[in-house]
Amino acid sequence: MPSPSGFRNPRRRALAAALVAVLAAAPLLFAGLGRAPFDDPGEGMHAEIARELLVSGDPFALTLNGVTYLDKPPLLYVLLARAFRMAGAREGTARAVPALAALLAVGATAWLGARLLGPRGGLLAGLALLTSAGFFAYGRYVRPESLFVALLAAGFALSLTGVVDGGRGRVVAGLACFGLAGLAKDPLGALASPLALGAALVLGGRARPVARWLPWPGVLACLVLGVGWWALVELRTPGFLWYTIVDNHVLNVLQARWFPDEDVPLSAPQFLAVALLGATPWVVPAARTVWGLGRRRAWREPAELPWVTLALWAVGVLALTALSRFRLPHYGLPAYFALALLAARGWERPGRGLVALHAALFAALALACALFWASDGARFVADVLGAADVATRKSAAAGAAAPVPAWDAFRPLVGATALVFAAGALAATVCALAWRRLGRPGIAAFVVLATMVGVLPSVAAALSAVSAHRAVRDTGRLVAARAAPGDVVAHEGPLESSGAFEWYAGWRPVIVDGRRSVLGFGAGRPEARALFWDEPRLREAWARGRVWLVSVRPPARSVARRLPGARLVAQGGTRWLYVNTPP
Hints:
Blueprint: H1 11-30, H2 43-56, E1 63-64, E2 67-68, H3 75-87, H4 91-117, H5 119-130, H6 133-139, H7 145-165, H8 168-184, H9 187-203, H10 216-236, H11 240-253, H12 268-278, H13 283-295, H14 305-323, H15 336-346, H16 351-374, H17 378-388, H18 390-397, H19 407-433, H20 435-438, H21 441-470, H22 473-482, E3 488-492, H23 501-505, E4 510-512, H24 520-523, E5 532-533, H25 535-544, E6 547-551, E7 567-572, E8 575-579
């Protein structure tokens, strides 16, 4: 058996393990990507920003609905815009970008796992990441999370192997990947990642020479890629750094923002439950590995440096987010590749107890799914979607109905998941009872992996059902078919709730009562004043000519109930479309 800590495996075998993991993951990630319209809120905003970037060609001036957008850096949008140019602006094209990023994350995780554990361990690590339901869902969803995770995983794979092998070029490349991670989502990704490696070296008393793990070309690449865009945008848009660093990070953590949006943070227990459930069952053997490392004080052993670094990263991401006052469901995703690697090591010498624990876990999940399946679905929406889905949390906080389809859309998927977990529990129980006769721990790991693969189609189908229910596509197409030149099209509420409206309608709406949003900073800029209206201005336009009003607010809370002659044209999912009868 290969050493769990060494790099004794040929590089070709590591590449082969990564390739097999990617080939196994691709069909699951790419199947049916273009079938559902964009989820709104969620995907549509990011796709529309990329479409506007395709027109403007300026990654230093991102816009949504023509309004300056500063909440995320440009890497995802640049990649989306290039994909649109090559393959057309479609849902499937947009989702292919995060899916390809997810493949990169799986491949990088498998490659590092193969270098640490051998090809079998590397393959298990890559597929463990894929079958973490939280990661899989974001791998099929137009957001920057899977790209962020991919670049972090690649950065750790390159920098860890480079430090251990003395490969300075790989360390430089790893730091460059960390910089790109900052360009994908957040500069903290560029700064915190090498700190985890540095902390592991400090614990072991091996931080010097610093140039071994922080060579100056790598540090320069990390800073230029991770911070350079932010500095250039500040020159063009004064106040950007204050908004991004102070308001969007420091004040956000303190829940004292000047430009708040409508996100509703999770409590610490809710966040940990969502993060750990999204990495189930791999968090169980990962925890076993972390416990063993801590009990043995493994940081004193030079060969354990990669594992100590991964443990510090995974525990640090989850613990620091839990301690923060602002937490969203996807904030735990950066820990998942490290948890997958730690889990693969935990399966190197599993023992009957670990297999029995998985059998019990699968049985408990099967029972929970069966109870949900037999219910009216209210608890599923409140407890599961209420914690895992940002839009559902926003609606609950606003006193509105959950923006998800009826329980009938989820019930068969929950029932199928219950059967998969029940079958997994039965197979794992057989493995535990016949442990001595089987004599092959890999069989039990295969049972766990196969069980989680069986869950993924239900996850994909649930995503599609939610997207189809709350997409703005039908409303947008109706406006495109009926609105005439000279009409006014208005959107009530934050535009990110209908981010793909212009994509589907071909109309750029004015925004009524939508300053509390991700466009809060951009709304105050001179070029955006004509696009943000208050109720008196809407009333003036309402009295002069035909106005189409798209609202994400229920009729009892909408401005439409105070507008004379407002006629409801259509209602679908989470939107209401009104029109007036002009004089």
